[in-house]
Amino acid sequence: MVREYILTDRERGILKRFLDSGERLEGFASIVWLLRRVERRLKDDLELIEAVLERVKEQS
What we know:
By secondary structure, the protein is an all-alpha fold. It has one domain (about 10-60). About 75% of the residues lie in helices and about 0% in strands. It contains 2 helices and no strands. The chain has helices spanning about 10-20, 30-60.
């Protein structure tokens, strides 16, 4: 089943805080470690999703 999100609200907040202020809140290192580990899979999945949505749009 497809999920509606990749990051939890908490994870999103931690990453936004880092981008806004450079502050590395508790949990930041774990999130970055995981993102590095799964980066290629996430990008591949996003490319697949975009291609499917484009095809559906063309057929509508």
